[in-house]
Amino acid sequence: MRFTLFPFLGLLVTTIASVSLAFEGFQIESFTSYPVDKPVRQLKIISTADTELFAPLVLAFQQKNPQIAIEYTTVSSSQLMQAISVEGAPFDVAISSAMDLQTKLANDGFTRAYRSDAANLLPEWGRWRDHVFSFTQEPAAIVISPDAFSGLQIPKNRQDLITVLRNNPNRFKGRVGTYDVRSSGLGYLFATQDARTSETYWRLSEVMGSLGTQLYCCSSDMIEDVASGKIAVAYNVLGSYALARKDLAGKIEIIAPADFTTLMLRTAVIPTNAQNPDLAGDFIDHLILSALTEAGASYYPFPKLVTDTSATFLRPIRLGPGLLVFLDDLKRRRFLQEWEAAVLQ
């Protein structure tokens, strides 16, 4: 995937770093803009969003603030939670697709309050206690290989998917993928929301488990494996990542389930130990305005944040204390036991 970079942003240095936290193998991207040789200040961002997808937002911010260098560190949602709540890593902004974990960070006192005119533009369900701020609405989708479904009815909902998998076990054996919810924060969020919405989720999980489901950490890996033919179908893939892969046209098909499509809000918080909380606030304003106004039309890489989710099949996940229910240790253990029984047959 390629992006057209702003002409004055001349330097993008990529390194793989191991740092003194409890997890290693960060991917750290350093964005430094010309003509400023020595940027005056640095903004440190930790995020679950793939750098290639998020880069246009970073570069657009630097176009308005060329004196600011940005260090962008990509991790999993579980690693982000650990970095902020356990290791006390000094990041200015934490961005995650795991809304429940972001809410827990705020609820447990690991984030700063922030107020601004831009933040006030968000609907009530799009922010929580002036600590958690959304800037996307991204669907949990089913991604299939059209070739693998040749001659079969393309599923439109979960029951259709159950039927086609059940009726064609030889074709789909070992060729179904989904998140490993034991390690993926976003995968766990999607799974618990599915289970709260419909019992169909558990029937589908059992069918996928009977076929030897392949488990993944990340949507991007599932999408690549569907495109290559390694797997035929991936369930609960982050739809924004699939939609961004224009290079895979014809190799993948993206399905928003018609029975219900879960919408995740990608959110940003300011950790309590942020070194530059004012810059962090400016960046959050940039994210919100990019999502809600025409200002970001040329570079905003995600589905726009819209206030009308009245379509009957859309199920937005709401920010709030309800997201903490399945983070309770006992409830989490019980959910994972049921999930393992269904999927790890």
Keywords:
345 residues, alpha/beta, D-Maltodextrin-Binding Protein, domain 2, 2 domains, 12 helices, 15 strands, globular, disordered N terminus
Layout of secondary structure:
Elements: E1 11-17, E2 26-32, E3 41-47, H1 51-64, E4 68-74, H2 77-85, E5 93-96, H3 99-107, H4 117-120, E6 127-128, E7 132-134, E8 138-144, H5 158-167, H6 169-172, E9 176-179, H7 185-197, H8 200-210, E10 214-216, H9 219-228, E11 233-238, H10 239-244, E12 253-255, E13 261-264, E14 267-269, H11 277-292, E15 314-316, H12 329-343
Parallel strand pairs: 3-4, 3-5, 9-10, 9-11, 13-15
Antiparallel strand pairs: 1-2, 2-4, 5-14, 6-7, 7-14, 8-11, 8-12, 8-13
User: What spatial form do the alpha-carbon principal axes imply?
Assistant: globular
Strand content: 15-25%
User: Alpha-carbon distance between the termini?
Assistant: 37 Å
In the CATH scheme, the class of the largest domain would be Alpha Beta
Task: Name the structural class.
Answer: alpha/beta
Strand order within the widest sheet? 1-2-4-3-5-14-7-6
Low-confidence spans = 1-25
Calculate Rg over CA atoms.
20 Å
* Superfamily (CATH H level) name of the largest domain: Periplasmic binding protein-like II
Integer tally of domains: 2
What percent of the residues sit in helical stretches (DSSP H or I)? 25-40%
List the secondary-structure elements in sequence, H or E: EEEHEHEHHEEEHHEHHEHEHEEEHEH
Q: Assign the CATH topology of the largest domain.
A: D-Maltodextrin-Binding Protein, domain 2
> What characterizes the major β-sheet?
8 strands, mixed
